[in-house]
Each structure stands twice: as C-alpha cells, then as structure tokens.
Amino acid sequence: MAKLTSTLVTTLKRAFRYGEGNVGGDGGVVSPGIEAALDAVQAGVEEHDHSGAGAGTGTGPAIAGTAALAVAAASEYLPGFISADADGRALIEADFFNEATLEDKVLDDALTAAVLANKLAANALSAAVVAAAVANGAVGVAKLEEGAKTFVDVQLTNAQMLAVRATPIQLVATPGANKAVVVDDVHMVSSAAAGAYTETADNLVVEYGDGTDIVAVETTGFVDQASVQVREIKPNYSALFTPLANQLVQLKNSGDGEFGGGNAANTFSLRVHYHVVDMVAFT
Question: Which of the 8 DSSP states describes residue 108?
Fold first, then answer.
C-alpha cells in the first residue's frame, strides 16, 4: 500500500507542476501547499500500513482532514480560482476582496477601492462640491500659488461697446493689499457680422484701474469689420515693467469719442490670461 501511495503521490506532483515547465512536465516545481498536502496523505497511509493491521482491515490511525487539505491547497493554485465563472463571482460577492484585504495590497491604505468608493459615494469629489469651493473663494486667486497662471472670460454687449470710453469694463478684480495683477496675454473675438462699428482715432486699451496702460489694441481693420474677427495680443515686457498694487484691470476706449455703428446682436469677447504677484518682500 505504501509503495502504491508513493507512486500515486509522485504522479500527482507531476500533474501539479507549474512554473518553468509545462503542466504535467518535469521542468517546474510543485506549489508548497499542494506538496504539503500530498506528503500528508502519503505519511498517513504509511502510518496506517505500519500500525500492524492487515491490508484492507480498515484499522489504524485515521488520516484526519488530508483530503480536504489537499483540495483547499490545490484550489489556491489551479486556474480559475478567481474567474468570471460562478465560483469566481461568488468570491467577489462574498466580499473576498474587502477593505481589510485591500489594505494589505496597497501601501498605507492610500488608494483602496473602499476609500475611493466612500469619497465618491459621499459626493466628496462631486461637481457641486468643487463648484461650491470656487463660489465661496476656497479656490480662487487668493488660493493660487503665487505666479500660477489663470484666466477670466468677459463678453461685452453692443451697448457696452458703444459706451466703453465713458464706462470702462472690468476684466480682472483687485487682487488685494500687497498684490498686483500681471496680464500675460489677451484673446479677443469681435462678432459684428450684423453691423460693423465705426471709428476714426478710437482704439481699445487694457489698463489698470488708475488709467495706466498695460497694452493697446488697434481697432482699425478689427471692430470696423462686419464679420467675426479674432485677435491675440501680449504686453511688451521686454522693457522694465512695474505692476501696480491692488489695482483692477479694465478695458477702455482710449480714443477721442465713442464707437459708432454696431448692432444689438453684436458681442465682443475677451479672454485675459494673467497671474498675481507679491508687491512686498518675500522669502
């Protein structure tokens, strides 16, 4: 019996080989769990044979749990243990991969599925939460790292364009004490297909609230065209430039009179890219 068992165990070990060799071949190794289970079976049978009882008498020490152990050990290494079949789905549904097991797989539990799921389920990262943070100033100019570039979009109506000399339009709000706005570039779209503006010596200027020019915009060939016109302009910072502390940035007609013409359907859009800098010593 012992010889038969030894031959059977050897055959089973060959069947369970894995790694560098093919299944059933000699090139791989037997997984530790399977090998231990098979050795336990062999040891139990040999002890049974050496107990003095005759073959087939059914007497001798019991081989407790060896079959169950072998099945359990083998199941962890055989293909399909976690799969899309019913058994695999049952493991997932039974919470086999739960927060506790994932904590062992992800360092410090920083990005477990449970952690992310809780955040999303609680709307911690929802659009509404982000929008509220922006609306209440939690995310805004004051919270940006100094020097970080941002932008603002402003659209003028036809009526505002016709009065922009007397009533300048704010583009960027005052940044606060000891801060200054530095304009990086201005993107403009004049949508005047319904009716061009008229001008003689009238130009647009992006300036600080006190009237200090930042960059001038030539309007001839631009707003006087009955079509959609696009322009991009950057301030000339090749010369030394001094930003002004706590000043808003606005758009104004710098000519000798207001624009004429136009149409109620017209719009004038600006996208102003800018950043905020300190106006006091910093480290």
Answer: G
pTM exceeds 0.70 for this model: no
Of 212, 186, 201, 195, nearest in space to 272 by CA: 186
**C-alpha torsion 77→78→84→90, nearest 10:** -70
HSE (side-chain half, CA atoms, 13 Å) at 209 = 13
Separation of alpha carbons 249 and 85, rounded Å: 64
Say how far apart CA 195 and CA 158 lie, in whole Å. Answer: 10
Contacts of 265 (CB under 8 A, 6+ apart): 158, 194, 195
Domains of the chain, each with CATH number or no CATH: 2-96 (no CATH), 146-278 (2.60.120)
Q: State pLDDT tens for residues 172-209.
A: 999 999 999 999 999 999 999 999 999 988 899 999 99
| Burial track 32-71 (b if 16+ CB lie within 10 A, e otherwise) | ebbbebbebbbebbeebbeeeeeeeeeebeeeeebeebbe
